[in-house]
Design goal:
mainly alpha, 88% helix
Amino acid sequence: MQEILKRLEIIKNSIEIADEESISFQVTKLITMDTEHSIDIILELLQDKHYTKAFQEINKYIVANKIEEIQGSSQAIKLENKELTKILRLKSEKLETYEKKIIMFNELYISKLGPKIIEVLHSKMDTLYSETKALQDDLKKRQEHYTLIDNSINDKSNRLDEILEELEKVDTYDEVYPELKSNLNTLKEEIQDNEDELYYRLNLLNDTKILINENENKFNELKSKLLVLSKISVDIKVNNFKSISTLIEEDGYSRDTSYRIENFEEKNLFLNSELKEITTQINDIENNSTFKNIINIEDINIFIENL
């Protein structure tokens, strides 16, 4: 179609400058092409040298096709406009959902918790810290006691070996033998008692380590909650997230405004600009560290109740 229109334009211009050679060449080209009936009429007029009438028919044909082309382009722009409007609406709804989540958390935080909960969390953390410090001090003393008993067992074991060596050197009838034998038995009993106590002390050490580990986990959990609660009020104040209603009201994305924009190309530029802005807002929210914490909370009410 474009080739036919261009060749007709050449013929039209050739008629104006009386260039019959160019007219004849273009007619020959058009005859070999698959053309509609209106073109066949124009070709007949040109072959019969009716240039005035041919000029008029060519002009009408070109104008009609340009109108059709403009209408087709207009429909394409309208379709693009419809798709952009749909995408913008979905993005706006997503932004509104994010904003509601943030506002809901903030309202619950202020109404149910406020600064008081931070004080409570600090108090719990201070208590855990004190308890853990006491356990760590106790652990240190128990480790020292454990080491003393262990050293005592080693000393007694060495003395036991010495007595056994002495017993091997003396006869059973020797006057020192009963005393050595008695000392040997006493040492064995003491070593056994020490080993029993060492086992008991080892269990105490392990229990204390478990308690310290549990307290540290509780402390870190409270610290994590405190971090979320401490940052949320700051983030809400810093980030002025637009709602869909605000977007519609302030930025002209209203039904009336849409109809006032007669030029669809201009409207599409407007929609693309709005889409870019709202996409940036969504990305800013999704990349916000506090929002990532909030969005992962399945039930905000339960989360706050469990604090």
